[in-house]
Design brief:
By secondary structure, this protein is α/β, with parallel strands linked by helices. Helix 1 packs across helix 10 and helix 8 runs parallel beside helix 9. The radius of gyration is 19 Å and the shape is elongated. The chain binds ligand BV8. Ligand BV8 binds next to helix 2 and helix 10.
């Protein structure tokens, strides 16, 4: 797949940058074979709209259905591998002094790729928490009951993800807002920029005067405002960006590390 060359001005910006923040959405996992959030669901789940299922109300109405939807998604992700887009961000973290990776994804693929400091704004598919205590539960006794119950208090377990209408983890959101407000370069990668408050982050960076880059084959509400638009798949664009900024030319050692 060909896409427009990386602007030389952007290459210079990234090479000189000490503080970079990245926001990723489902699009960065698309090339790992993990369907994006708004892609039509398949098979058994085709008739459900994710925005209907990813809510506290759906869980209250039908905890077994919602728990099984997440179990199905866990299986999809287990079969997936991080792709070159995830790996390019691992390299970027190595090259830049202050690098913050903020993700809306719950698939854990950034950590599996080797990224260390990842802010998971919407939780993680593979973590469960007690519905009553609202505290994580690492393990629970095998049981035929679905969803299983909290070994501490016996309440139902639920996926440790942020559903629509729920607050984001305050610490992660605060750190993400701080990173967006102080970044010299902010990259928004593979997100439809529709879901708030995460979608506010690239606009926070713009207002603070950052160079904002969007990586997406499709336009989004952010597109008209960005400094650079790289229209194509993250799995091809990000490795090309890393190559041209840090490996392409001699002596292009990162300004940061
Ligand atoms: C909240 C976890 C506050 C669960 C998810 C204004 C302000 C504040 C809130 C709101 C507001 N207006 C409305 C709201 C409510 C709501 C919201 O934003 N709704 C939207 C739909 C309008 N927000 C909330 O409810 C949030 N909470 O606001 O609480 C509050 C609380 C209580 C009382 C008062 C206030 C919680 C939002 C979190 C929801 N949880 N996920 C789960 O996964 O099961 S959201 C879910 O959708 C994903 O996690 C993801 O974050 C989000 C967006 O999806 P994307 O990641 O962008 O993926 P999508 O499929 O949409 O797009 C993929 C993109 O990739 C596309 O652009 C495509 O072109 C591109 N792409 C495809 N292939 C590639 C690619 N890009 C690059 N390379 C490729 N190869």
């Amino acid at each position: 797949m060909n896409f427009s060359p990386i602007p030389t001005e952007l290459i210079a910006h990234l090479r000189a940058a000490r503080r970079v923040a990245v926001l990723t959405g489902a699009g960065i996992s698309a090339e790992s074979g993990v369907p994006t959030f708004r892609e039509a669901q398949t098979g058994l789940w085709a008739r459900y709209d994710p925005e209907e299922l990813a809510t506290p109300d759906a869980f209250r109405r039908n905890p077994k259905l919602v728990w099984e939807w997440y179990a199905w998604r866990q299986e999809r992700v287990r079969q997936a591998e991080p792709n070159p887009g995830h790996l390019a961000l691992v390299e970027m973290e190595r090259r830049i002094a202050e690098f913050t990776l903020i993700t809306q994804n719950v698939d854990g693929l950034h950590r599996r790729a080797g990224s260390h400091q990842v802010l998971e704004l919407h939780g993680n598919l593979f973590r469960a928490k007690c519905l009553d205590e609202d505290r994580p539960v690492e393990s629970w006794p095998d049981s035929a009951e679905i969803p299983p119950r909290c070994p501490r208090c016996g309440a139902l377990l639920r996926p440790d993800v942020v559903w629509f209408g729920e607050m984001l983890p305050a610490g992660a959101l605060r750190a993400a807002e701080q990173a967006a407000a102080t970044a010299e370069v902010f990259l928004s990668i593979g997100t439809s920029t529709l879901v708030y408050p995460a979608a506010e982050l690239p606009f926070t960076a713009l207002r603070a005067g950052a160079t904002v880059v969007e990586v997406n084959p499709q336009p989004t509400p952010l597109s008209p405002h960005v400094t650079f638009s790289l229209n194509g798949p993250a799995g091809a664009i990000l490795p090309a960006l890393v190559e041209q900024v840090w490996n392409g030319s001699a002596g292009a050692e990162g300004a940061g590390r």
